[in-house]
Amino acid sequence: MPLPLSGTRWRQLEQFLKFGVVGSLGLVCDIASVYALRPLLGLDLATLAAYFIAATFNWVLNRLWTFHGLGLHHHPIMQWLRFLSANSLGFCLNRGTVYALFFFVPLCVHHPALALAAGALAGMLANFNISRAMVFRNHPGAPQTTPTQPDKKPHSTTP
Known about the structure:
159 residues, mainly alpha, 6 helices
């Protein structure tokens, strides 16, 4: 019989599922960016530029939804830069997979969406764990406000 998830594990699973939804939407943004930029920049540069467009899109959605209420003490620009740098391992896994598929699988050059999807999967787990630990977190002394733990307000003693 499976054991029920604790509150912390349930929150992590919920965040992971939301991160996956955001990542799927980011993949759509990534693919659309590659196809839009390819005629102007060529496949290689379009693929590189599209990563930063999709990563920014993902950061916004993760900030507003997946990790809502966490890390708000960070200036948004600093948090965005931390997101990009913290996810550099995911970037290497993602774009490494994409460029390897472009090199070894000619079909992927003609249909970049296939390589982009494989790259997104390659970087997802690393990006989730690093984002949770380094980007969307509160400092030890910061108030812990999340949608599942609203601020406690004092009760009024008057009816």
